[in-house]
Each structure stands twice: as C-alpha cells, then as structure tokens.
Amino acid sequence: MRKLVAGWSAAALTAFLFLPWQAIEDGFFGFGWIQDYPDDRTASALFYGLAFDRPWLWGVLPFVALGVLALAFPREDRRFGQTLVFAGLGGLGYTFLQGFAIGITGLQWTWLAPLIGEVETSQYGFGWGATIILFAFLMMVSLGVAALGYFRGDAFIAGSVIVSTALILAFVFFPIATMLAGAVTDEHGNLAFDLFWRRFFADDIWELNCLVGGPRCGVVFNTVLLGVLTGALSTLMGLAFALVVVRTGLPWRKGLRALTILPIITPPFVISLAIIVLFGRTGIVTWFLEVAFGIPPSRWIYGLPGVLISQLLSQIPVAFLVMIGVVEAISPSLEEASQTLGASRWQTFRTVTWPLLRPGLAAAFLLGFVESLADFGNPLVLGGNFDVLSTKIFFAIVGAQHDPGRAAVLAILLLIMTLGAFWIQMRWLGKQSYVTVTGKGDSGLSAELPRKLKRILYWTTIPWAAFTLITYAIVIFGGFVRDIGRFDLEFTWRHYLDAFRVELTERGMFFSGSAWDSLITTIQVSAISAPLTGIMGLLVAYILARTKFAGQRTFEFLTMLSFAIPGTVVGVSYIVAFNVPPLELTGTGLILVICFVFRNMPVGVRAGMAALSQIDKSLDEASLTLGARTATTVRRVVMPLLRPAIVATLVFSFVHAMTAVSAVIFLVSARHNMATAYIVGRVEAGEFALAIAYSTVLIGVMALAIVIIQLGVGRRQLGRRGQQTAAALGGH
Amino acid sequence: MTKSTTKKGPASVEFRNVTKRYGTVAAVSDVSFTIEPGTLVTLLGPSGCGKTTTLRLIAGLEIATEGQIKIAGEDVTNLSAADRDVSMVFQSYALFPHMNVLDNVAYGPTVAGQKKSDAYDLARQKLALVGLKDYDLRLPSELSGGQQQRVAVARALTMEPQVLLFDEPLSNLDAKLRRRVREDIRDLQRDLNLTVAYVTHDQQEALAVSDRVIVMSNARIAQMGAPRELYEAPASLFVADFMGDSNLIDATVERVSGDQALVKIGVTSLELPSRGTKTGPCKVSIRPESLSVTASAPQGPAIPGTIRKAAYLGTHMEYTLAAEIGELFVVDRDVANPKPVGSTAYLALARTGVSLVPSV
Ligand SMILES: Nc1ncnc2c1ncn2[C@@H]1O[C@H](COP(=O)(O)OP(=O)(O)O)[C@@H](O)[C@H]1O
Ligand SMILES: [Mg+2]
Fold it and tell me: I want to staple A407 with a disulfide (CB 3.0 to 4.6 A). Which of A396, A570, B29, B164 is the partner?
C-alpha cells in the first residue's frame, strides 16, 4: 500500500512538472505539440504557474505534496489514512473549482472577482496533465480510505468504488443534472417553475382519449403501451428460444442460436426499412395479399404495429441472451431433487424451474421495456402518427420548435417510468436467494420439458425464426438490386461500390468509397469502448454483489441511471455539459467512447450481478484467505466463472456501439462520423439501397467481431458429468 | 522451497473486546479470548450466536467494528484477509469449480508467485498428507463430499498458515464419516503442530477434538475452558444445559469457607467449590452419570426416589426418578440388573459432575 501511495504521488508530481495541463487541440498522441512545448497552450501546470500568468495552478501542488507527506506515518497510524484522504479530496475539489471558475473567457464566477481580482487569461479543458493528477488524487482518497479500515481494508475495492463513482458522477450525473437544470429555467437561464408545470401538464402528454374512442392518446400512454408489449413479448419469446436451445432435442437448435444473434447486430432502423419493404403500401406482402385475397393496400404498418414488430425483432435476441445464461445455470441437481421427490415434469417445472427463472425474466423484461422506451430509430421511421417520448424529445430539440426545456420535461417523465419499472421488479423478485453454482461441485442432468410445453415452444419459435430469416433476406437482397423500395429488382453492384470502392493507385490503395471514413471510425470506437464497458460493468457488478458499504444503494442507482436516460437526451446533455471547460470533449472521438461506455455499462452490471448471484461468495473468500488479493481473485476465480456474462457484455457493448443512433447523432463531427449517423443521412436523402448495403456490411463486421469475442473469451467449464454421453444415448 | 513458505510455526490469536455490528445488530459483542499457539480451540454454541462471524473476524473476511485483534502478537485489526497468515476451510468447501484438484490445491502458492512446478510439488505433498493421491486431474464436481473436504483441507494447508480455521467441517458429511474426519483433523493438528480454531454447534464434537472450548451465546462468550471443565463445572445454566443432559436442582448453600461451600441437596450435604456463591438458595447441576443408582440403601448419604421410567440402550440404562428434590435423569452402566419401574431406588452423588451453578 505504501508503494502505491509513493507511485501515485510520483505520477501526480510528474504530471504537474512536465505534462501539458490543458487539452491539446490536435490530440495528445499526435505529438505535434512537442515542437511548441512549453508555450501558452501546451505548458505543464508548473510552467503555467511560473511563466504564463496562471498562478492559481500553484494551488494544486500543496495537495500533491501532502500525499507524499502521508508516507511519514506508518500504515497502522490513522494519520496515514487521514492525510491521504484529505490530500485527495482537497486536490480534487481545488482542481475542479479552479477549472469551473476560470474558463475560456477568463473568470466565469464573477462573484469571485472581489476576492482574487479580475482574471483575463483564458483556460481550456483539462488535458493529460490535469487528468493524471485528478486520477492520482482519486487513488489517494481510495488508499487512505482503505488504510482507515473501510471496505474491509481492501485497497482494490476502495479504489474501484471511488473511481467508478467519480466517473459516473462526471459522465452520467453531471451532464443530466446540467440538462435537467434546463427544465426549470427559461431561455435566459432564470428559474421559471410555472413554465415547468405548464410544460409538464400539456395535453399531448397525458391525453387518454383513444381509450374511449377518441382520435389519439397522449405520448405517455403510447410509450407505456409499447414498452410493456415489447418487454413482455420479447421476454416470453427469449425464454422460449432459450428453453428450446438448452432443453430440447430440436435439430438445428444450434443454428437457431446463431440466427437469433442476427437482429442484435442490425441497426434498428434497418429492420424498419425491411418491414416497409414487406408490409408498406408498395410492399411485397401487401402486393401478395392484394393479388391473392383482394385486400386493398393500407398504411396499417405505420404506427404501433410496425414499431412493435421492429422492436420485437431487435429485442427478442437480447432477451434470449439473458435467458440462456439463466437457463443454463439452473442446477440440474435441483430438478433431479424435485423429480426424486415424486414430482411430475410439469410440477417440477412449475415449482422448481420457474421460480429459478424469475430473476432472469425480470431482467429481460426490464431490458425490453427500457429499450423500447429508449428506441428512437424505429419510431422515427415507422411511427407515423404514433408519438412516443423519444421521438418527441428528439423533435423538441432538432425540430422547428427547438425547445430544450420541453425536451428536459419529457426526459424527466421517461426517467420516472423507467425507475418505476425497476421498482416494480424489485417488489416482484423479493429477497429470495438464487445461489445455484456453489463451491460444492455440481453434477447431474437437466430435466426433460413436459411434452405440451415443448409443442407450444416449437409453434412459437420456429415461425418467428422463419420471419426473422425473411427480414434478413430482404436486407441482404436489397443491397444488390437497383431499388427494392419500388420493386426495381435488376441486379447491381452499384450501392456497394459507391460506399466501399477501393482504388489501386501507384501510391498504394486508396479508399475512395464514401462510407470508409465512418466505417473505420465506428470500428475503432466500438473496439475501444467494448472492453472498457466490460471492465467497468463487471467491476461495478462485483462491487455491488460482493461488498457492503454505506451508500451502496445510491451507488447502484447511479450506475443504473445512464440506462434510464434515452439516447436522445444523453446526446443533448453531453453537448450541453461537455462543450465548455473544464471537461471539454465535444468534437473528439473520446466523447463517443465515453458515451458508449456509460450507456452500455448497466448491461454489464446486470449481467454480472445475475451471474454473480449464482456463484457462492465463499469462493472469493477462499481465494482471499489463500493470500490472493482482490484483483487476483477477480482475475483467477471470478472472471473464469463469469465467462458467459463477459461474452454477453462484450458482444452487447460492441454491437450497441456499432448500431446506436439516438445519442450518437448529436455527438458525431465531421472528423469523427459514425456509420449509423451516415446511414440515417442516406435514408433521409431517400437512398434506401445504399443504406441497406452499408447496413449489410456493418452486420458482417459485427458477426465477425462476435465470433472473435466468443473464441477469445471461451466457454465456462464446470463439468456436468454425463451430459454428452446421455445426449448421445438420447437421454431419458 | 522459497522464502515465503519457510515455517513460521503456529501463532497465538488474541481478541480484545471485539465487537462486530451489522447495522445496529451485534453479531459479536465485546468478546475477549486468547488461543495459545499449537492448540485446537472450538467455538461452540447454538445457531446464530456469532461463531462464524468470530471465525471470519480472525480470517479478516470481516473487519471488527470495535476492539483489537492480534495474531502472533501483532495487531491485524484493520488488515485485509489476503494480508493475514490465516487459512480457512469453508463450510461449503468453496473449491473453485473451474479448476481441477491439483490447481485448486496449488492456488495459494501460485498466486504467491511460486514457480508452477514448485507449487504443484507442494500441492501433491499436501494431498498425500490428507490421503488423496491420484485425483489430481478431477474436477471438484467429480468428487464425493468427503473427498471435496480433504481437497479443501489440503488447499488450506499449502499456505502453512499460522492459524487454520474450520467452519462446521462435518456438517456436510454423512454420520459415519464424521467421527473419522474429526479424528483426522485432530491428528493433523497435532502432527503439524497447528493453531486451529474450529466452529461447531455439536457439543460432543467439541468435547472430542478440543484443547479448549469457547461456548458462545447471543454474541457473547458464555464460558471458556478445557472440555472437562465445561462439562463438569458449567458456569451458567445455559452452559450446563447446552453441554449435555443435566439435572438442575434447587439446593441451599449452608456455609462458605474459603473457596469451598457446604451445599445441602435434599437429605444429603456435600462440599463443592464455591465459585463465588453466597449462603442461601442456589442451583446445582448434576450430570446423569454422576448419580449412581442402587436398589438398597448404600452406606453414606443417599437420596431415595421412585423409578418412573426405564429404557434399555444397549451400553447403558436410562432412568427417570421422582425424588423429593425433583425429577432426576440418570444413566446407569449396570445393564445386567435393570431396576423395575415403580420400585424404590437410592441415588448417591459422585465426586465429579456435580457443581454449583452461579446464578447470572
Ligand atoms: N452479513 C451479515 N449481515 C447481517 N447480519 C449478519 C451477517 N452475517 C451474520 N449476521 C447475523 O449475525 C448473527 C451471527 O451470525 P453467525 O456468526 O453466522 O452465527 P453462527 O455461525 O453462530 O450460526 C446472526 O444473527 C446473523 O443473522
Ligand atoms: Mg455458522
């Protein structure tokens, strides 16, 4: 521990003395700044203090020095911990205060002027120097707190809790708070509560007219209806698919598994495009129905039916991934126990299997519900007159009205609904314990499903799988014909060439296709953010599942918060909060990575917690008493047992980073454009075919990535003895 | 062998006024004791009295809310589990399900940075010690309960810990295995000269294996001492009752002289250690086998009574007698001459197993 303190103090000192304090315009790792170093934009805090008229930066140094000073005390001495905590908190506080107080136009907090005098010097966003010092301060707090005996004296856990809390505060809470402040202020920034109430109780939000035969309902009713339908149906279908794959002998069920991954790796609006091609006024199915049965074409698909079908197509596979982990983890010996007690198959399912499935079902429903609320691509393309909150928020900001205040009010509503979903779920789940992977080795065979249930499963999953297949056939096919939207089916390579042309010149390959820039950025951003999301998410899950500390509830709430905020709002809030120093990030690639990490992290947390709740805590403790530190324990014991959760998290975050639209559309810049934003642009320009062609390529990239992730992480091996043998014998 | 495994020998464990609270509930309350190096001490008590919590406090899996914990004389109160030289055998064994037997046992030395081959050598050596050869490549799920436990013990031993902890090691084993395993643990402790803290709720088990026993009740220590002391001279009604069958009889202290008291039990009187009692009414605990039954009045003082129930249990007889001082439960080795129900019998008190119970 003393070594760590010395190390972080040294890092802080180095950063203070040498590293550029402010963000470098062309990027730190371009190293172009070295030529000018140290000048007015690139200097370290030390040089700024000495030569460039920013004396307040000297104020950071005493806190760094204090950290070093703590080493004067032995570890057991309470003053060691106390000094570190004081140095860290003080340093963090001072660094942020000076950053907010003095911005681009000099002193921002004018009320400070009488105290410190006018400041004309401008100050830009934090760079690597500031970042490293801030991180070192966080570590000082963590080490100090651990030395004082909190978090069971475990520096790793203390550090994880404190660093992740700080990051979540900075990148989830701070932007949302900044944004919500807009809900209660008018355009001049003055408090205006009456305006807030007027916005909140507007008719188009709460109308329930349609229930009594009126023309339309308010946006709240629509949103909840869609969310519940999507959540419930996707959960049931996800469970059905999981049961079919794990518990039946259906041939090709492995193929089913692969097939259900397809919709996940598709940008959501692409499914909408395929739905239009099938069911729209000039769609294939519509045409067939007219010819065969004389049913006249209509626009029925625009509205709830179309949006629901599209959302189900993308959500069922997610529910499937959640449920398969749960179904696989249900200990066969429990079911064996039930059967040996004379229970019939159906009784076993109802009294043993079903209660064990419930936490997974709840998780899948929540996911479906919240995803539906947050979905914005499908309602945008297929919604018609069916307004939901996410599109309303979007149009409140980018539409003609441009009313961020109204958008914020709608966002509050959405937040309330999502938290409501959490709450209901907590009540439903109760406080039962679901530890089924224990330190005692498990063995046994899974129970066969009752025949009636099997038949129902087949009749629901097989048609849906077929439907999914057709949708994808359309998507793939659409990229190779002139114009699938108008039934112009002449074969062509044109769309692919437009997007992905590569020319061979004397100076090597030249990527002249219009889509290359956005594709490469997208892959980079996704590949960087997926592992970061996995690490953050599973670490937080581990902390939540395995430790107890004051404020844990608040911590859990914070980690889940980003999940509750629809992408449109996240996008806007990031622009509002990160357009000005000290956290000045708009226009960088980093803001995209950060956005994805914190938006996707809750999925990792959920998956990790669900998996951890089934792994006996004494396994970790055994490792600790054998002298392994928590970091080692996590690496050697927890991680290998969490493999299914790791795969799910990596896949989910990679894929979501590649397919997300709502938040991204606000954060892309000319230099860092993303594939989805580019495709939406093509859709708006009416170039459906190009959009479809590009989407097919994206799907290919993601499929490849998923294979790589699965091979890289591998499967968990616990030894269910006889599983293969019995399967070979046909089971009984 | 590398430096990290050089023998440090067994260590003492000392609790000084240790309290552990969960919220407002105290799981362990103001507990002080010392475990001498190289001894086996059991923590005994009914479920929920704080035994496991005490053990986890020694291991560092819980940090004390108040008080001080020392191991080998050094203050470890705020040290994390990984920093303490203590190993634990968990109630559920906690074998890593994704590692085979050898990797499980070699885990400690491996994470301590030993060479893989050294770690395996050490692991094999410890596996041989617990009598488990040729299972190296099995997964824990492919072992029986008893084998899993031996792997868990071997794994704890690889650390050559200063203190070894067992949490209810017999609870997951079938009855036949229990006696053997508890003897194995005791032999191992003696052969390797280990300091062992051992949690159980079974008083017979505690009496059989321990050098000393700490009886806990409601998060506090009720009594500690050698097994014989606890059984023959329980310090409270709770301990008397918990340590096995006992007749708790109203009696009178007639006179206290020094540390001896003259106690009148019905028609008989006898000298017992006074244990801080004053003259006046008191309780006496009499173990069932400390009463000898005879059909005819013996020489010396005896309590007359009537046999109400009699049961033959192979090795001994059990009688329930109605006497003037109350109902008495008696164990008699003499199975050859059973006394019929309804007959009169005389009870004489033995020297041991009769004690004054201070009223607390
Ligand atoms: N992690 C915990 N959180 C809250 N209460 C606990 C926790 N662990 C134990 N307790 C409580 O502390 C008391 C003692 O528990 P324990 O030490 O496990 O008892 P024993 O092992 O003697 O059965 C019990 O009342 C139990 O409910
Ligand atoms: Mg216990």
Answer: A396
**Quick check: CB of B22 below 6 Å from ligand 1?**
yes
Three-state SS sequence of B73-130 = CEECCCCCHHHCCEEEECCCCCCCCCCCHHHHHCHHHHHCCCCHHHHHHHHHHHHHHC
Please, are residues A695 and A276 in contact by the beta-carbon 8 Å criterion? Answer: no
| pLDDT of amino acid B350 | 84
Distance between CA atoms of residues B340 and A376, nearest Å = 90
pLDDT band of residue A691 (cuts 50, 70, 90) is confident
Q: Kindly tell me the sign of the dihedral angle through the C-alpha atoms of B4, A640, A638, B138.
A: negative
Is A214 a member of any domain? no
Give the β-pairing of B40-44 and B212-217.
parallel
Percent of chain B topping pLDDT 90: 50
Prediction pTM value = 0.74
pLDDT of residue A167: 92
User: A159 lies in a domain?
Assistant: no
What's the average model confidence in pLDDT over A26-54? 77
- State the pLDDT confidence band at A440, using cuts at 50, 70 and 90: very low
Tally of structural domains, chain A: 3
Using an 8 Å CB-CB cutoff, list chain A residues near B165.
625
Q: Mean pLDDT, to the nearest integer, of A597-611?
A: 87
- What is the band of A477 on the pLDDT scale with cuts at 50, 70, 90? confident
> Which value does ipTM take for this structure?
0.81
Mind giving me the DSSP string for A467-478?
HHHHHHHHHHHH
Q: Look at residue B146 and tell me if it is in a domain.
A: yes
Same domain (yes/no): A71, A117: yes
Question: Per residue in B7-41, pLDDT tens?
Answer: 578 899 999 999 999 888 999 999 999 999 999 99
CA of A149 to the centre of ligand 1 (A): 20
Distances (CA, A) of A576 to A24, A97, A239, A569, A579: 21, 19, 41, 10, 6
**Ligand 1 site, residue B67, Cβ cutoff 6 A:** no
Domain count, chain B: 2
Range of the domain at A633: 516-713
Please check whether residue B198 lies inside any domain of the structure: yes
pLDDT tens-digit readout, A190-202 = 778 888 888 888 8
Choose the final residue of a domain: A130, A148, A166: A148
- As a residue count, chain A comes to 732
A531 domain residue, yes or no: yes
Nearest CB partner across the interface for B142, out of A152, A624, A721: A721
Beta bridge mates, B196: B40, B164
Instruction: Give the list of residues 6+ apart from residue B183 with CB closer than 8 angstroms, or none.
Output: none
pLDDT band at B209 (very low <50, low <70, confident <90, very high): very high
Find all residues with CB under 8 Å of B267, minimum gap 6, and list them.
Answer: B301, B302, B303, B304, B324
Residues B262 and B222 in one domain: no
Shortest Cα distance, chain B CAs vs residue A339, angstroms = 21
B285/B177 same-domain check: no
Residues B323 and B253 in one domain: yes
Task: Check residue A723 and give its pLDDT.
Answer: 35
Ligand 2 midpoint to CA B54 (Å)? 9
Report residue B125 as tokens. Answer: 């050596």
Structure tokens at A728: 């070979």
In the three-class reduction of DSSP (H, G, I as helix; E, B as strand; rest coil), residue B217 is classed as strand
pLDDT at B326: 87
Residues A127 and A261 in one domain: no
Say if ligand 1 is within 6 A of residue B50 CB.
Answer: yes
Is B3 contained in some domain? Answer: no
Mean pLDDT score across all residues of chain A: 81
Q: Please name which ligand lies nearest the alpha carbon of B51.
A: 1
Domain at A693, CATH number: 1.10.3720.10
Domain that holds residue B352: 245-357
A621 touches chain B (CB under 8 A): yes
A332 interfacial to chain B (CB closer than 8 Å) = no
Among residues A148, A177, A192, the one where a domain terminates is A148
